[in-house]
What does this fold into?
Amino acid sequence: MSHPLYDENPVNRFASNYGVLEKIDWLRNRALRPTKRYQHLSAYQPPATTLNDITPTLRIAFTGDIMPLGRRELSFHKHLEAFYADADFWVINLEGIIYPTERWLALSHKAQIIKSLQRYFPPERTLITCANNHTGDFGYKNFEHSCQMLKEARYHVIGRKDENSFMLPNGVHLSCATMWSNQICQYVPRLEDARYDLEANFNILVYHWGYELHLYPNAAQIALAGQLLGKYDALIGHHSHCPQPVTAIDKRLVAYSLGNFCAQLWQRNHRHGIALKMEIGPNADGVWKTGKVDYGFTRYTLHRNNVIEVGMVDGYTY
It folds into this structure.
């Protein structure tokens, strides 16, 4: 597959989006535990918090990163399945791509992931975002092949620079972007590529940003969130591989990172995430706002039958 805007770039086998100091920080947090640095700068709001009085019109659910699962099968515990059951639309971040062969089994999804996801939510009501630091891991052709497989399964897919937004029902617009890319590539959407629809009732930005294995955002992230929420109506983040606060700025939702939803390897520092739902609708003046925001912590478990089960938990420890 080719595209007139995107040349195929060389793929480096050992690639990283971090500089020297960031790599040292990542290695330290991975060897020990996620850092609580910056915990004084932000805090979680309680679950089931109502930010604005609205007429609920659309309920959207979100997950943390769905990491490459190889041949493993994904399973939801019944409590997690019940949490998502009343959502009108489901937005998930697929980290990495579906690779067409068994060559990169440990670093990519296989076609099995499609069947696993289809069991729990209808594809036609599911939006998959693919804008993350692993978008370019195997080059443009393989990325496009992965997106095409998902589209043929009736999923809505965004994550290429010129296809990085989608209009959800009721005029709710969602765009995605990434702060990081392990590989140098032209087709991954950056923050400047994110789209805001002036005609939409409500605009959401899904942003892959921040730093891995940080339990709290730093001051620069918090300041940027404030700037973005002067434009967007809600901000949903990923990339840290561990949960970060779900909170609000001027009654606009900001979930700094939903952590990890699942992964094929048992990594004690990557095993928790956040399942989140938000209600959107008009207030008394007809302006669309966020109403009730509910969330719960998740944890995945590897079973001997090659199944990864994700369930709800009361909290998390590292």
In short: The chain has one domain: 20-313. The first helix runs from residue 20 to 31. The chain has five helices and 16 strands. The radius of gyration is 18 Å.
